[in-house]
């Protein structure tokens, strides 16, 4: 059975004080449904991570179904840390593949900007293993990727400048994206000299907290955008359990499965959205997904190969680093960008893009989803 | 310093597990491990969780203790990859290391 994308919607990403979580969720959903020609919907899946802990709002699926008059259709909220959106998208696909649904609405949403940094850090840390000694050593998510980055530098010859080049590229892409959180130009010097968060990662190497939502309508009825494959994998939940610190096995495995199911390889992909929660993550995952050899992803960045006019454009939306990272919405917003690319209507359009890939990560490598889409 | 070793495949872990993640066997033996190791990698944390804010900047280190076992720990001395460190104490759930 083939499954297709029929409609996409996305709100502005950023600090959206005057909008509630429901406003954002409905706004993105309505746009996606309109774009799809307002079809009958058989189910709703919502990706969300901290609606319960920092916004005291659950039942997101039922809210969408009720407020949009979708009827008594089944709904669910999907939680998979920062991969909540990608997993929600995959649940819609699996639901259609099972024969239970014909058409499904997927949305992702997060409200994070109304709480203090301390509260938000605590809430995000729920995606670490509470019973581990790592949390008690003062490790944080940016800390994990700081440890990884120092080892990557040690083994490959990469430097902080290469991380800055990732951040700069994604900022330059976001400048052209009216929905992005950060659209102010930055310089490589400014990025290199910004205050440190977890060395060697500075402010520009870390994705921000963001309010926002995105939505997609998928169906077994034909459209111009086919979902060629959907894959998901899990990986170590602790840094000290990584067999190879410079590898995120969940990313590699989800990529391998997605290529296998689609009958495609990394060489066939024209445009990519990678989960760049940190600049370092984009480089490692670009290697995991087979776009570049291990230990050479930083060279590809240096050579401009991942820019919109390069041979492997990554994060033409601005990525999490500059488009913003409303946790539950991120995976769905990647599908939004890839769909625009394949329709030929994207910001930073890659000329002639026919096949696109979106990779969404949760935790420090606990979850990863990969979806491959093709213009047909 | 104590660790646990899978009796079937030799996998080493800081804590006992219900199942060995490598071979799914369920029996582990307690083993004593050498309390010195080498810094495999590290970071310096400037923006810390609330509980650690007063200690920042501090280091989180990943220490290679044996061929099969790395341990995430806390240090307040400057370090580099390859530095030799010693397990100092287990404090409030964290392995604390110091330079040799
Ligand atoms: Zn074993």
TrEMBL record, chain A:
Record key words, sorted: Lipid transport, Lipid-binding, Transferase, Transport
SUPFAM superfamilies for the chain: Thiolase-like
Domain named Thiolase N-terminal: residues: 7-220
Taxonomy, superkingdom: Bacteria
Pfam family name, one: Thiolase_C_1
Coiled-coil residue spans: none
Location of the Thiolase C-terminal domain: 233-375
GO molecular function terms listed in the Swiss-Prot or TrEMBL record: acyltransferase activity, transferring groups other than amino-acyl groups; lipid binding
Database matches in CDD domains: SCP-x_thiolase (cd00829)
Enzyme class: transferase
KW Transferase (keyword) present: yes
UniProt record, GO biological process: lipid transport
UniProt-listed Enzyme Commission number(s): 2.3.1.176
Protein name: propanoyl-CoA C-acyltransferase
Automatic annotation (TrEMBL), chain B:
InterPro entries, alphabetized: ChsH2_C, NA-bd_OB-fold, Thioester_dehydratase-like
Pfam families, per database record: OB_ChsH2_C
All residue ranges annotated as the ChsH2 C-terminal OB-fold domain in the record: 31-86
Protein name stated in the entry: ChsH2 C-terminal OB-fold domain-containing protein
